[in-house]
Amino acid sequence: IPPPNPSVVAQGNPTRNIWLAILLVSCLRTYASSTSKPNILLMMADDLGLGDVGCYGNDTLRTPNIDQLAKEGVKLTQHIAAAPLCTPSRAAFLTGRYPIRSGMGSSTKQRILYWTGGSGGLPPNETTFARILQQQGYTTALIGKWHQGMNCESHSDHCHHPLNHGFDYFYGMPFTLVNECQSTENRQLNALVQAKYWLYSQIIALTVLTLLIGKLTGLFLVKWKAIICFALCGFLFFISWFSSYGFVKYWNCILLRNHDISEQPMKLEKATSNILKEAVSFIERNKHGPFLLFVSFLHVHTPLITTEKFLGKSRHGLYGDNVEEMDWMVGRILDAIDKEGLKNNTFTYFTSDHGGHLEAQKQNTQLGGWNGIYKGGKGMGGWEGGIRVPGIFRWPGVLPADTVINEPTSLMDIYPTVAHLAAGIMPQDRVIDGRNLMPLLQGKVQHSEHEFMFHYCGLYLHAVRWHQKDSAALWKAHYTTPIFQPEGAGACYRSGLCSCFGEDVTHHDPPLLFDLSSDPAEIKPVSPATEPLFDIVISRIERAVQEHRQTLTPVPQQLSGYNNVWKPWLQPLQFGPQQQTQALAPNKSTGISFSTGFKFKQIIDYIKLNHWGSFCSSVTQVKCHTP
Predict the structure, then answer these.
(1) Is position 159 annotated as part of the catalytic site?
(2) Nearest to residue 558, comparing CAs of 82, 88, 85?
(3) CATH architecture of 39-177+253-551
């Protein structure tokens, strides 16, 4: 804006000149605001289905705040997660890179981090968008779920911790919500493995009991040494797995403030209010900006912790209640932005880490999300229902309002987008798979920069999307698809989550090919007989796969069997009384706080209430009384 002409301002009515001066100052402030670094607010739901949100077609769940966000900004209809499970998807979101590049993909059935006390996690040499913004003078915070690991070699090295990845402040769960956080019923963490271990323990216990009775009655000629040795081996086996799986609530369901444990186990009934208070408090403390606030909701992951205010209020049971409570939280956070006068200078984003969990059920009650018209869900690397998620952006005065974009985009695009907004420099020594979305969001370009998108299930490439440049054509080839259980059910209800490999999948040669522009629900694949371009499309996609694989380099596998087992020496523990400390400025040198008086009584009480009866009954085959 050119400076005003002094001779013109000096002439005429003084009152008019005053008003012109006020108008000029207002314009200069608006211009300065629009060109300065914006605050950045990122909100991510956990396991939210695309079809659960009103602005994406759901007319039975109430999500007025998310819907209003879309009305005031830009809605993406083809926003794709880089993985169908939380740990790898969030790693890709934070780094702008496919999980396979950082070692956050898995070749086993354990595709997420299973323990706070494990050694796997987001490698320290990965550069997150939080680190880039921190270097540009932003105050950065993560409130809510992390699930990217904690420690590498000791309980206090914090190599995977958020504060080691560019966040100045962290309050939330280092792990994720699981059913064990609430009760021992309907176990969720590696449930099939736990069932096997229980069975083996029962067999060993019954064998020892049989040998003991046989020895005492003279039926068996067996030495006492053999019985004692067998019993000792069985006891060691039981301790080896029960010491981890038997105390999931204490090991994984904890809250941290920076490096210090705030609650162990966490008080679920207070989690919603605590996270909301922390988010609002951060906005109030940093209203002079610039800041990056990543609110990673615990909603809407099972066990669907919902406050009394929302229980029974939706038309879709507990899951619907939880969705509507999360929408209310979104509204309160946006209200805090408005209250501080930050709306016009805040780049706001809402999404989910992947699709809804179709197999999450209890008896006949659905506890997982709905993915609209799209096939599949959480855990399925190729089908749209597992990876197509909400994508909503708002920045008044910079992004158009009430706009819909149907181009392919990725959660990985947030990385280069916010780096661009902060005038940051992305790493030049590695491949960044995300693309800056600002030209597309502002309408300066009509097509996405993504030509090919690769859909992994663990380390296995299941599908590839091809968006032909300057064309509306959108193809998707499936090389591998999961086998639904039961057949035709649309999900893997028997196992609880679909597998990526082995006898639980079907390999397709030639690949299944869908034209997503006319068949987004992936109902009817095309064939050489029905599509003249079939061979050309498959050939081009296969060439793209080869080119993509040439960019991959070997890296340590963070989700390997060794990294993904519980290690007592890595487990964060709280000693002494639990206290709700006040939010303090981060101290990166602070280790976990220890004091005297470890709560052995709590753990003993936990065994009595949750495990003694089931273990005793399984061994003696009669109902036991809690000691």
Answers:
(1) no
(2) 88
(3) 3-Layer(aba) Sandwich (3.40)
